[in-house]
User: Fold this.
Amino acid sequence: MKQVKLLSREERGAAARWAADTTWSEQEKYLEDPGYMECVRDILEHPIFQSMEQYIQHGSTSCKAHCIQVSYLSYHLCRKFGWDYRMAARAGLLHDLFLYDWHTHARETGNHFHGFTHPRTALNNARKHFSLCRGEADIILCHMWPLTPIPPKSMAGMMVVYADKLCSVTETALQVRGWFAMTFLYRGKPVGHA
Assistant:
């Protein structure tokens, strides 16, 4: 079995800082990366992908911004390690193409298992609108591993799993940090005083 070089402590820290910085997504710097755009332009420009902007994923991050962040991080890390960066970039964009607000989904439908069921929904939606290779389909279907029992079959898929977890945690942490600051640090203090 091929030995996989893990990210160093510095590289993990850099990836976490990158995932916590939402300004790059808002500035759309990824659009200036010709290698990345060659892989994903058709998806980014598609109206169904653009519609993901209306759904919040974690904290105040839209589903579209989350998927771009997962995709772009996966793309860079796969290029670094010599894995299939194109497949990671494309599947990363489509991994959460479930097209509903998961915060209200259970209340509206009675389906309380979004974490388990949305990969299949995302895959079905992706197949309706895009041509997928077998590896991309596998990554979308298995991206919630270990919550779902079967891991992705490729290292590109494992990178999407890693990027998805890292981005999700940082997006949620930003919301928790804001809540903590408002609840405990600024409670009862006059505006303009630290």
About this structure: Confidence is low (pLDDT under 50) at residues 179-183.
